[in-house]
Amino acid sequence: MSSAGSDGMRRMGDSVKGVFVENRLVQAVVARKWSILLLFMAFLLGRAMILDQLAPFGVAFFAVMYFLRRELLVWTAVFIAGGSLFSVEPMHTGYLIAEMVVFLLLQKGVERFQRSDISYAPAMVFATTFFVRLFSHLASENLGWYTLMMTGVGALLSLILTHIFLQAVPVFTLTRKNYSLKNEEVICLIILLASVMTGTVGWIAGPMTLEHVLSRYLILLFALVGGAPLGASVGVVTGLILSLANSSAIYQMSLLAFAGMLAGLLKEGNRMAVAFGMLLGSSILSVYLGNQADIMSSTWESVAAVALFLLTPKGVIQTLAKYVPGTQENLKSQQDYARRVRDVTAHRVEQFSEVFRQLSRSFKQITVDTQPMRKEEEVGHFMNSVAEKSCSACWKRTQCWDERFYHTYKYMTDMMTEVELRETMTRKDIQPGWKKICVKPDQVLEVMLQQYHLYKNDQHWKKQILDSRQLVAEQLSGVSQVMEDLAKEIKREGQELFMQEEQIRSALEELGLAIHSIDIISLDEGNVEIEIIHQYTRGFDECRKIIAPLLSEIVGEHIAVKNEQALDRKDGYSTVLFGSAKEYEVETGIAGAAKGGDLLSGDSFSTIELGNGKFAVALSDGMGNGERARAESSAALSILQQLLQSGMDEKLAIKSVNSVLMLRSSDEVFATVDVALIDQYSANTTFMKIGSTPSFIKRGSEVFPVTANNLPVGILQEIDVDLVSVPLKHGDILIMMTDGIYDAPGHAVNKELWMKRMITEIDADHPQEFADILLERVVRYHHGEIYDDMTVVVARVDKFRPEWATFRTPGMERIERPRTVS
User: Fold this and answer.
1) Which CA distances in Å does 295 have to 207, 258, 302, 380?
2) What is the reported pTM?
3) What pLDDT, on the 0 to 100 scale, is given for residue 20?
4) What are phi and psi of 697, to 5 degrees?
5) pLDDT digits (tens, 9 = 90+) for 43-57
6) pLDDT class for 772, splitting at 50, 70, 90?
């Protein structure tokens, strides 16, 4: 490697190392910030008390930190004990230290028996708190009914707080990968913050009490993020916990709840409006509940909280909003996460598609490189084998192959040609001239016959291997194409359609419908998919009567209800999927009879929607009759149906079926395939006819045949698939049949003209009735005898008529469709 290349590699390595070190440094700084915050919370929780005698916060927080941040456990214990030194109860510190030590001893004992689990933490905290306090009362001879009751209450509060902290503390430990909290987790987070504020009880700055300032600041944050419901909830929770810590502040619960609700109602006016709502709510209740001094102190506390609120960085509020469900920031973070997942999935699918494409090319290259040897090389190899086995021990070997090489080679070649033409060649068939030259013609003929059979067997297996490789190459190519289409579909679903969703929402809400959410999956013409969640009213069917017609007007094409699913909720919400309605609908009818009146026919049929706007009508006739023929035809249709449903190209699907039928058995396995793919948006129909009889289209009084010349599948390795495209019209009747019906008139009659006349004479519009009449007339033509398996499939194409007509709304604008992802 050159010195320049070495320097480049070194610089690239240094840059990668620098980025890695920088990322580790950023992570370390962020982790240190959270650690400092957790330790500060531990200090305040160690000081917090309820009714000046219960301290359930410290040991609960210590137990949770043991499981979630064990590396900070020692510092957590130090800060909890340090905070307890500033509490009003002098014995509080000793109790907390004893409880933490006992909890550690219990936990170590449980771990020794391999029973440790985070779910046991609340019960262990309960036991620790109860028995430590009980032991202290017994030691001080102060045990009575009141102290026993307070001990039980304190232990129960510790248990509840442990449950709450287990759900709230993970928010600060960076263990959550997504920004999605349940409502219960949000409440637990509020309780944790309110418990931390309890540690500031008694701290006074001039006319202001610190816990009141912090509680109102917390209300302002959550009211701006979550509106009136969350603001009122925060007020109730913080007011309740603060009133437990200080019984003289019981009125704070109603004051904070009312202030939080009023602040949340003004959320749309941004920060200043929220601050005004909180000031107004706290001032009104202060006038009713306090004297002049209380009013002034409450006002100063509200003003201080507003000042902190206005100075709070925007990023803090956005981060908090990501955690609260239902906010725009939370919704956007979820959409961003889903978009990243879609992009990664699409990229991964594209990679797999390219892998399959490369594998397909590799197999095709191997097939080309391993073509059978040239004819001259094959003949030379064959001659060498025969000469070595029959002439190596002959006394005339030198005379034949050295002195008269070309003459001998010509006679051997002529004889090989005769063997190739007549595999049952005997001594009598040997040319007289050859007998005069060769002294052992019988032995040479026997060796040549043996070598020719070996050569034929070798060529057969070589062809089988080449056919298998070709099939694998084509299948890999088809899978690659399907995966490429899937990647495009994933990318298409990732388009932003917020404007179109809001347009639909406003149009539906103007009609008085309660719409919970709208999600546009696709707006491609003919492939529209819109998912709407709304309150479903049984008996009214707003989906088909109102929403679908309105969507048809907005989108500009017929929209119908594809699927309805009721949600597991008591408020009656349901998820309804709307999609493009078919421009044409297909109705089918089938009639058939087995040879000789047997139960099992060798014919198979299928009528199915492929899911991509196409309706498939397929018919297959296995060679012969009975169970074996049925297996052949059903296998052909089953494989073809699966390939078409996966999105594979029609020609490649037919070739794959042909290859599979050739390779799966050494016996002769033949089957005709007759498929009509009807596009339900344009009525354009593609016919794939492999060895099948003609199909007929009846349009009014006219009948048109559809024919193609191909051998049945399973005979030749390479087949030319002729696709015949015919545009159908409203009211057209498509008739497809097996040879048992088409060959009914016999060889002396023009079958096509006979069948056209028979179809013309049938006056029936319903497909099933049409199929029954045609089969009955064919059977009557043979006086009730059934000489072959007979199956007829009839399909009628009609314009789709929506159940409810589209109505026009004045001022309604058509939706703007996004450009298709290429």
Assistant:
1) 11, 16, 11, 115
2) 0.51
3) 40
4) -115, 120
5) 888 888 887 778 888
6) very high
SS (H, E, C) 685-748: EEEEEECCCCEEEEECCEEEEECCCCCCECCCCCCCCCEEEEECCCCCEEEEECHHHHCCCCCC
Q: Which two tokens stand for residue 271?
A: 């920060």
**Cα(72)–Cα(65) distance, integer angstroms:** 7
Residue 626 has which token pair? Answer: 């009975």
Q: Please, are residues 456 and 420 in contact by the beta-carbon 8 Å criterion?
A: no
C-alpha radius of gyration, the chain, whole number: 43
Dist. CA 425–CA 434, nearest whole Å: 14
Helix (H) or strand (E) holding 566: strand 559-566
SS3 69: coil
Structure tokens at 317: 């509020």
The beta-strand segments (E) located in 234-348 are none
Selection from 645, 636, 603 nearest residue 739 by Cα: 603
Return the closest-CA partner of residue 128 out of 196, 79, 56. Answer: 56
597 CB contacts (<8 Å, ≥6 apart)? Answer: 786
Tally of residues, the chain: 822
Q: Are strands 733-737 and 695-699 parallel, antiparallel or unpaired?
A: antiparallel
The answer on pLDDT for 6 being more than 50 is: no
Kindly report the number of other CB atoms within 10 A of residue 475's CB atom.
21
The residue type found at 544 is: R
Please answer whether residues 662 and 641 qualify as being in contact, where contact means their C-beta atoms are separated by less than 8 angstroms.
no
CB 681 within 8 A of CB 744: no
Distances (CA, A) of 645 to 586, 662, 714, 722, 764: 18, 22, 22, 20, 32
Count of CB atoms situated within 10 Å of the CB of 480: 20
Question: What are residue 584's DSSP bridge partners?
Answer: 799
